[in-house]
Amino acid sequence: MDTLRDKLKKNRLGAVAALWATAVATSFALNFSKPNVKTSVKLIHARLHAQAITLAALAAIALVEVYEHKTGEKSEKYKEHVQ
To answer: Which top-level group of life is the source organism from (predicted)?
Structure first.
């Protein structure tokens, strides 16, 4: 679990990109069961769902960054650079 957490800390944007791709595929798969909807509309809906999930993930990353800068080891590095 710690190694996964460390990998996510180092490559946050890569994790968001993987989340986006997974969300597009999942949403498209779920929309595929709707028979009376055009494929282009299904793709648009899949993109919109993935975009919403990605924005939520980026907001979460921003909150984690702020928290780390105030409390974690990044706060110590920041204090050293400021002084």
So the answer is: Eukaryota
* C-alpha dihedral sign at 69, 71, 72, 73: positive
Give the residue among 18, 20, 8 at the shortest CA–CA distance from 64: 8
Sequence-distant (≥ 6) Cβ neighbours of residue 58 within 8 angstroms: 16
Report DSSP state, residue 32.
T
49 contacts: CB under 8 Å, gap ≥ 6: 23, 24, 27
Give the residue numbers spanning the domain of 64. Answer: 2-82
Q: Give CA angle at 7 (27, 18), nearest 5°.
A: 15
pLDDT for the residue 63: 87
Burial class (CB in 10 A: 0-12, 13-18, 19+), 26: middle
Number of domains in the chain: 1
Please identify which residue in the block is written with the tokens 């993935």: 50
